Amino acid sequence: MVQIAPSILAADFARLAEEVARVEAAGADLLHVDVMDGHFVPNLTIGPPVVKALAAVTRLPLDVHLMLEEPERLLPAFVEAGSAGLTVHVEACRHLHRTVQAIKAAGVRAGVALNPATPIWLLQEILPELDLVLVMSVNPGFGGQRFIPSTLAKIRALKQEIAARGLSVAIAVDGGVNATNAPQLREAGADILVAGTAVFAQPDYAQAIRALRG
Ligand code: DX5
Ligand code: ZN
Question: Hey, which end of the chain has fewer CB within 10 Å, N or C?
Answer without folding.
Answer: N
